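Design request, tokens follow.
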């Protein structure tokens, strides 16, 4: 689903709700049960179960525990992960976060709200500096470049920059967002705004790499080609690594969510393959220093 939300009557489908609903469908199917069985244990209608599985409505903890019991799911880690995902979804639905004070495109607003609730993000970026690490000068130059013609929204540049800086506070919050990011060398040699932008941005990347919550790696030209070059993606985690991942894939004219399952696992595997071929953290910082000397 490419829209930030889908609606049905007075119900709203959220990315997290659909992720949780997908997990419930998988568990129910594995147990060989139908929606009628789920409705009976919840003393509810099949319509309610359908809404729960499609992410139309927030999940209550008692209902979730009852379904886990019915489906034979007793592992505390699995049950705990589902409960945590349901909690985050409930809070995200009712919260009026800082992003509500800014003019942010609908899909990006959904992404930002999830980023705000996440515990960890893995990001691969072959073309640009990741948003969580961009300087105001880089953002300003990027939004005035030809690259902005297919992605720039109606919001004023300074408001967009202020929102981006607000996002970046997650890296130093208590607890901080854990960020693992791999950047392709091309993104470090093709700065919007030229050398004036590059100097400050390279300094910012070096500072970010020193944060305990950030793992920054560079994928050099010398590492060759790989499937990740087709586009950027972010893997957003809300619980134990891999347990509740959602993937945000961005390309010109389209953004899409990969809400768990084998597809999300494939992106996680791809990220690890990219990381294995990238420079390690120390080498990456040395690479940034060398680029600054070449300016």
């Amino acid at each position: 689903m490419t829209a930030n939300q889908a609606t049905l009557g007075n119900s709203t489908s959220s990315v997290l709700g659909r992720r949780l609903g997908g997990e419930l469908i998988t568990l129910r199917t594995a147990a060989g049960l139908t929606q009628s069985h789920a409705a009976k244990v919840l003393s509810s209608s099949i319509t309610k179960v359908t809404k729960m599985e499609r992410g139309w409505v927030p999940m209550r903890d008692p209902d979730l525990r009852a379904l886990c019991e019915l489906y034979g799911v007793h592992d505390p880690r699995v049950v705990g992960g589902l409960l945590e995902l349901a909690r985050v979804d409930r809070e995200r639905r009712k919260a009026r976060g800082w992003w509500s004070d800014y003019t942010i495109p609908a899909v990006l607003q959904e992404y930002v709200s999830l980023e705000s609730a996440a515990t960890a993000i893995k990001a691969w970026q072959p073309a640009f500096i990741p948003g969580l690490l961009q300087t105001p000068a880089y953002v300003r130059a990027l939004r005035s470049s030809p690259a902005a013609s297919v992605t720039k929204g109606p919001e004023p540049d300074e408001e967009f920059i202020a929102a981006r800086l607000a996002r970046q506070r997650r890296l130093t919050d208590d607890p901080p967002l854990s960020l693992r990011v791999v950047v392709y060398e091309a993104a470090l040699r093709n700065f919007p705004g030229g050398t004036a932008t590059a100097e400050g941005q390279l300094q910012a990347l070096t500072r970010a790499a020193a944060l305990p919550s950030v793992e920054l790696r560079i994928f050099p030209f010398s590492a060759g080609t790989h499937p990740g070059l087709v586009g950027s993606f972010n893997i957003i985690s809300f619980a134990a690594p891999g347990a509740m991942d959602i993937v945000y894939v961005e390309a010109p004219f389209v953004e899409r969510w990969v809400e768990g399952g084998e597809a999300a696992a494939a992106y996680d595997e791809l990220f690890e393959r990219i990381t294995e071929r990238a420079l390690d953290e120390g080498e990456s910082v040395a690479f940034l220093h060398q680029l600054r000397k070449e300016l």
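Comment from the thread starter after seeing the answer: thanks! The longest helix spans residues 76-94.
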